[in-house]
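> example.struct
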């Protein structure tokens, strides 16, 4: 990796509407992880480092840790389907959003807070499952930071 003065790791991005994180490796390098659309797991994509860091193309948006967690879960909920408690919670969020849409209104502050809380919880649940399955990019503690 090239020395990048000013690059603080970990850092979080939306890259062409896909969540990406760049984390430090034990040897002081960097590793790029992108959520894989087919499984919601982390896919190592170090080839994206330069494009993301140098913001080539204008489709790269930096995110705070909290917003990144929300974006990851919105992405997973949109592209994945399945059974179990995580997917039941995704459906709960979808129902809240659908009701507001049907009523032609924005989400209330209470609904927004509820959705943020659910997504934070599903992030931890999903990441814990990934970690148990051996995904080296999994980081359930991220939602707690």
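> example.seq
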């Amino acid at each position: 990796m090239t020395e990048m003065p000013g690059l603080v790791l970990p850092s979080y991005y939306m890259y062409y509407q896909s969540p990406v994180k760049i984390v430090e490796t034990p040897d002081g390098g960097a590793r790029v992880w992108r959520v894989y659309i087919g499984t919601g797991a982390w896919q190592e994509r170090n080839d994206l480092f330069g494009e993301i860091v140098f913001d080539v193309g204008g489709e790269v948006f930096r995110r705070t840790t909290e917003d990144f967690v929300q974006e990851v879960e919105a992405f997973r909920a949109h592209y994945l389907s399945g059974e179990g408690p995580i997917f039941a919670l995704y459906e709960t969020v979808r129902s809240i959003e659908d009701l507001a849409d049907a009523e032609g209104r924005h989400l209330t502050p209470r609904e927004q807070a509820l959705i943020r809380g659910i997504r934070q919880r599903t992030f931890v649940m999903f990441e814990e499952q990934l970690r148990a399955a051996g995904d080296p990019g999994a980081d359930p503690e991220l939602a707690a930071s």
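> remarks
Residues 11-144 form one domain.
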